[in-house]
Amino acid sequence: MKSIKFLDKELSRRDLLIGAGITAIAATAPGFASKAEALGGPTEKWPWPYVKLDPQKTADIAYDEWYRVFCGAAVINSVFSQLREKVGEPYKSFPVDAFIFLEGGVSGWGTICGCNSGANIVTNLIVGPRTAGTEDGMLMGSELMQYYASTSMPVYTPKQPKFTGAMPKTVADSPLCHVSVGKWMKAANKDLGSADRKDRCARLTASIAFQTVTLLNQWKDGKYKTKGIIPAKGYGIQSQHNCTDCHGDKVPSPPAKKA
Length: 259
Prior knowledge:
mainly alpha
């Protein structure tokens, strides 16, 4: 029987036929289609199923999860762990721990806070992305980023705090991890590795998880009216509302429109 070489391994025609048969059988197995849908493609359906959740319980989960997977994954898991139990798929197939890289403003680079990234992932999956013919998911995510930037944080107070000292509050005026954490560290006079700073970020994560579910519950009831905007539509360039904390007089601007 003739054989071919595939990835440095000799395969006979019999091997190939068996492999094709296994693939065909797997495609008809329960759960195969749902997992394929979760990965995307023409079978993708929006929005993902959602049942109303308790914002306080969600915040409590997010607070504890921060100490396991940090900000972004904690926001996602605070919502999706509950929906795995209440709804099932596609949440059971969602690899929530993969989003631990959102920590520290994406792999420690201090860019967008993981809370904001996690919240946008949640809203765009549940409400639906722009490719689903709606901007609602994106606008809800934008509203949450504005809430993050303009609110004196953290709002959430844990029932059983891992740090029991005084917890200063600051307004970031930015969705960026670097600015948000930096302003708090200056106000609290604490370093990055301090127990105070860690608990501050855990509480901030819980605060965003609470607000995310609050808005999703309004959406589920058909009562949600977004306050979110897409800044680029107003500025003519992708932007946040506060550039000067980082850029000073070197804020990039779009070229003047031709007459």
